[in-house]
Amino acid sequence: MPLLHFTLGIVWLVGAALAARTAGTTTPGWEALVLLVLLTTAIATGWTWARTRRAPTPERAQGLAAEHVPALRGEDLRELMRRLPDGVLLLVDGRIAQSNPAADAMFGQPADALAGEDAVHLVDAACADAFERWLRAPAVESDALPSTLCMRRRDGASFTAALASAEISHGARPAVLLIVRDLSDAERMRDELAAGNRELQALAARVFTLQEDERRAISRELHDDIGQSVTAMKMAASAALDEDDAQQRRDDLEDILVLADATLERLRDISILLRPPQLDALGLEAALRWHAERLLRGAGLVPALQIDALPRRPDAAVEQACFRIAQEALTNIMRHARARHVALRLRDLGDSLGLCVEDDGAGFAPGAARGLGLVIMRERAHVIGGHLDIVSTPGTGTRIEAWLPYVEAPASPPESGPGR
After folding, report:
1. pTM
2. Domain named Histidine kinase: which ranges (predicted)?
3. Strand runs (DSSP E) across 47-172, as ranges?
4. Residue 358 sits in which domain range?
């Protein structure tokens, strides 16, 4: 394009000169016009040339972009490692050149204490061979790194870690960036979730059976006990009607009164088991005190009761859950614990209430406990937004603690309750 402009200017100038010579005239205005054309052509040519030179080619544009990308320096790498939440180890020839704070904490080491350490020393003995094979493998075979590996902390405790690696250059030497993620919390949560699912499945599978068992027990109580008492009263009334002796008739009527009193007492017991009237009439504190004294004193035990007056009355669902948890715990003590001392405590915790039932009986291993009652107690607490812990070891008794809100809440229960 510049050459075309220049050529056109020369042609225009030569043509004008020839025309002037043919006409035989020259004027100053003509010379000025020629100079103006030359100057205009030169300016246009220079501007076009400069513009073409400034426009970069695709190759030059890529080079310019690369010039503005800074290289990853040593301090940049250390800062990146420091900010990562996972453990990061920089390995050179199988040894640790650098480690970030997350890795130091993961392996229980002081800051920078891992530098110079053989990386194999961080791996559990059972997995050391597989890790050494990966370290000796060439870069193209780095896929040989196991996705998870059993590693070892400073105190000797083992933990499962997820691993990822990348080949980098460190000080002009080949190096490996090893990323380590501790899976201990994830495995614990997985095990707890699996155990919780098993408990829920067991609860769902047996809830219908439990309801049928309760109905069968009530039916048996009504038939065998109440039914027999009513039958005996009927027979005594028939005998009294046919009795001519006034004294004998009086004795028969007195027997009927005794049977009626016993039958009413039994009906009250069954009704209380289904729903204690004290819970509705007097509140949670009085219902717990009455039930504990009635149940434990009947078995020859003197309960240690510490039932504080609550500043406000909990929701009806919370009262019922708290009472049923205490009832189930005390019933289990009577059936299985062979305890000499039993303590029941109820206290205010500000925004929640705390229930504790403790005994000095036989105890059990919590991992081996399969009773449905324990599952039901835990579920009663969870349903209203509370939490329940069971602490027991064989021969040392059992402690059941529940933290329940005053107001029923559908939210998930907290991970752990407050201290005792």
Report:
1. 0.45
2. 324-408
3. 87-92, 95-99, 148-152, 158-170
4. 279-420
CA distance 347 to 403: 10
Task: Tell me the CATH number at 285.
Answer: 3.30.565.10
Pairing of strands 87-92, 95-99: antiparallel
Q: Which two tokens stand for residue 6?
A: 């220049």
| 318, amino acid identity | V
Could you read off the pLDDT of 350-380 as tens digits, one per residue? 989 999 999 988 888 766 655 677 878 888 8
Buried b (16+ CB within 10 A) or exposed e, 367-405: eeeeebbbbbbbebbeebbbbbebebeeeebbbbbbbbb
CA distance 336 to 306: 23
pLDDT in tens, 164-204: 887 877 777 888 888 888 888 877 888 788 877 777 776 66
The Cα 299–Cα 97 span in angstroms is 70
Together in a domain, 215 and 311: no
Task: Specify whether 324 is located in the same domain as 338.
Answer: yes
Please name the residue that has the structure tokens 């240690």: 304
Token readout for 209 is 């059976």
Q: What is the pLDDT of residues 23-66, one digit of tens each?
A: 555 444 555 555 556 656 666 666 666 666 555 554 444 444 43
Tell me the C-alpha distance between 179 and 321, whole Å. Answer: 48
Q: Give the other-Cβ count within 10 Å of 267's Cβ.
A: 15
CA distance 386 to 353: 10
Polymer length of the chain: 420
Identify whether residues 173 and 100 lie together within a single domain: yes
* Structural domain count, the chain: 4
Residues whose CB is less than 8 angstroms from the CB of residue 371 and which lie 6 or more positions away in sequence, other chains included: 332
User: Residue ranges of the alpha helices (H) in 243-335?
Assistant: 246-274, 277-281, 284-298, 316-332
Higher local confidence (pLDDT), 215 or 56: 215
DSSP conformational letter for 225: I
Q: How many other CB atoms are found less than 10 A from the CB of residue 364?
A: 21
Domain co-membership, 52 together with 86? no
Q: How far apart are CA 179 and CA 87, in angstroms?
A: 6
- Strand partners for 220: none
